[in-house]
Amino acid sequence: MMMIIFPFGAKFSIRNLRFTLPTTPKPLFIVTPLYEFQIQATIYCSKEHGMQIRVRSGGHDYEGLSYVSEVPFVIIDLINLRSITVDTENCTAWVQAGATIGELYYRIAVKSRTLGFTAGVAPTVGVGGHFSGGGYGMMSRKYGIAADHIVDARLIDVNGRILDRESMGEDLFWAIRGGGGASFGVILEWKIKLVAVPENVTVFTVKRTLEQNATKLVHRWQYVADKLDDELLIRVFIRSVNTKFNHDDGKKTIQASFTSLFLGGVDRLLPLMQESFPELGLLKEDCIEMSWIESVLYFAGFPSGKAIDVLLNRTAQWRLHFKGKSDYVKDPISENGLKGIWEYFSEDEKLQGVDILFSPYGGRMSEILESETAFPHRSGNIYNIHYMVYWVEEGRAASEMHISWIRRLYSYMTPFVSKSPRAAYSNYRDLDLGVNNPSYTEASKWGVKYFMNNFNRLVHVKTMVDPANFFRNEQSIPPVPGKKSGG
């Protein structure tokens, strides 16, 4: 009945190998509590001895902020706090913060074929961080993001109190739905409202290379992606591939993969596509009807026919060195602008892996007010861009080369994306945007990119609940200097 305390580092939950190097700062201890009071004890002890706390649920932290710090620190790893209770009668569930998205999807599916949840596609992502930062996924045009469906929560604050929605108050409850939980306390569990899904959905992935008119198709997609039927979401993955033409040895080209979920049958989907995006040339044979939970496996990259209990496996399908960045697009990028992106893929033959993902907004995303939750990226955004560069080999040279490449691409994108501020998605954490050093003024530079007009309200909430800034990391919400808690 005792919690487990590991001295120094355990690497199981670290998804980004950039933070497994011998030179990476290690925690003094990793605490894996079995009970909530053990988290309270860890907070008391850390405050007493001047140690920081980092909280880890799934470990998919782009900059390692949940398990790396330059000062003495302790990790609270919530891997043992992952129970899920699904109430199909009331269409709700309580989900402990250490559970993964995959575990949640599985527990819903074994109870109901017509209930689901709107969150991300990577099954090993922990709900603690994912939900508190927003939680975008394949049903977001229909239902919004995960944070939009949180109806209650329990957390431990800086004083060790366990609070629910009523006792924490609406300001703090607002802040942890999109503003990140780690700035305000330790999230214990979420109560979520489940969403209706049809017994069968339709998926498709249509791949087109530059030689197959990919540039014009991606350009056209921008004009329809956020205006399609709300039950239809089409993402675009951009990758460099090797292919063969005219029986030669193959050449490098760009491939755009149009990947879609439609909350209905193929006979309804095909007329919608013919009306709104006929240029793609979608055929019935491109489409697969399946249950919603089978679509979860499809988008996670599992092979057809895989049993759904694979979602209970917390071991990530991949562990690589990677660097990610994000943008928001409000006006379609020209064909020449897109061609400029393609050129970056062939800039360096040593690049080991690049993915660029365009995720459409519109639908329900545009109907919710920017101030409704702390997640602000709503009306006016056509799509989000997620840039990812990854590599296998260790060493400073490989790391610097790949990170330099993605920074150059990000600089190239400046004229084509949102401005004043150039917005970013906080779940794609990016320390290039700035850190909490040395002042609140510096923090506001990255803060408004993630949280737009909601940043100042987040600062106000932080000042009220944690004025001494105990719960902090390089991009946590700062309190106003010198202000005291209101109680």
UniProtKB/TrEMBL annotation:
Q: Which residues form the FAD-binding PCMH-type domain?
A: 23-197
A GO molecular function annotation here is: oxidoreductase activity
Cofactors needed by this protein, per the record, are: FAD
Q: Which Pfam families match?
A: BBE (PF08031), FAD_binding_4 (PF01565)
Keywords on this record? Answer: FAD, Flavoprotein, Glycoprotein, Signal
Q: Do you know which PROSITE patterns this protein is assigned to?
A: FAD_PCMH
Which InterPro entries does the UniProt record give? BBE, FAD-bd_PCMH, FAD-bd_PCMH-like_sf, FAD-bd_PCMH_sub1, FAD-bd_PCMH_sub2, Oxid_FAD_bind_N
SUPFAM superfamilies linked: FAD-binding/transporter-associated domain-like (SSF56176)
Q: Which family does it belong to?
A: Belongs to the oxygen-dependent FAD-linked oxidoreductase family.
Write down what this protein is called: FAD-binding PCMH-type domain-containing protein
Organism of this sequence: Nyssa sinensis
